[in-house]
Amino acid sequence: MQTAAQTRDASQARDDRVTALARRFLATRQLSLRLVDPLSDADATVQSMADASPAKWHLAHVTWFLETFILRDRAGYQPFDARFAFLFNSYYEAEGARHPRPMRGMLTRPSLDEVRGWRAHVDSALLQALSDLDEAQLGLVELGIQHEQQHQELLLTDILHLFSLNPLRPAYALGERRLNSMPGPIEWIERPGGITCVGHDGDGFAFDCEGPAHDVLLHPHALADRPITNAEWIGFIADGGYSRPELWLSDGWAWVNANGIEAPLYWTREDDGAWARFGLDGHGPVEPAAAVTHVSYYEADAYARWAGARLPTEDEWEAAARGMDPAQGHFLDDAGAVKPRQPTAASGLRQMFGNVWEWTGSAYLAYPGFAPAEGAVGEYNGKFMCGQFVLKGGSCATPRGHARASYRNFFYPHQRWQFTGVRLARSL
Does residue 373 have a pLDDT over 90? Predict the structure, then answer.
């Protein structure tokens, strides 16, 4: 039985937790609004491809998530507009019918301002309810924050894809051009074999697919000290990398030929033969020292084979990143220009966190003992464990504080509109 002092301490600890959660919730919601400030209503409505979503839809969907899973069934809560449940459900089959994903760009109504109004309605209701939520519901608020941070990155990469299709080459936000000196040759950091534990250790938030923690056997290997740069990728192109079938997986070679792939996404050749690229800061020259990005798994695998190496496994990458401070990485801190940087001058493994997502050679599959959560939120990750590959580390578009060693991003092998890059590995 608790003493009065213990009860007061427990109550104070909960109050502190709720206050901190409210602060993080507001900061996350405000950042999303700042990310769309440079956009017109038209910019925020158009959909560039089926894999992408309009900026307005991202703002609305993360609000639908909070309203549906936390507020909807609370006594006295009045939905802002009951019709929005059909428009802004993504893939939750348990929540019923929804607007088709490839048709999200047809939602000219509600307007961007109406979506902002809905967000304000939900924010106010959730903050008022926060102190009364039970532990499970507080956990859903945390999941809602993390979910919105994922969509902040998607929002930026979807804006980039949309603007890349506009002949005016509009810039989302202007940024400094970096024409820095090249890093030295890759250094190989040897790693021992043996049994090690991977997966989330239970300390702090993690998505369900990051656990349970479990032992794996690693063989001796080496990791490149940094990601591959644009200049190194240009060497791959110059050596016929995109025209040599012996470098490519069968599906990758078919993809290259079917789509006329000759370079990373958003790269073009200028009249003088130099490579240029399109980014959130507009059109400009490829920066040789920066980490290459917007490459598919197929391209990453082909480059590794060309370089006499391979991609790291997910377990190798995670074991090497444990103990590192993710906060040291190059992440999204606020609205503005977003692009990869060159490696720092430090020794050892560099840029493991932030800058570019790093493809691994590991399929996205369930860990031993994995079980999805009960109910509709159980559809969050587990149902996608088929045909995709794991990426690690976060990118320059990932909100700061969102990444950790156990984090598992995943995409299909042909997809490359995210900030995806390459770190090499070798077996010893």
Answer: no
pTM of the shown model: 0.95
State the average pLDDT over residues 281-304: 96
Exposure pattern of 321-354 as b/e (b: 16+ CB <10 Å)?
beebebeebbbbeebeebbbbbbeeeeebbbbbb
Per-domain residue ranges for the chain? 4-164, 188-427
Q: What is the pLDDT of residue 177?
A: 65
* Highest CATH level, class, for 188-427: alpha beta
Q: What is the mean pLDDT of residues 267-281?
A: 95
Domain 4-164 class in CATH: mainly alpha
Written as six digits, the tokens of 340 are 């990869």
Under a CB-based contact definition with an 8 Å cutoff, are residues 382 and 208 in contact? yes
Give the tokens for residue 150.
């994922």
Radius of gyration, CA atoms only, the chain: 22
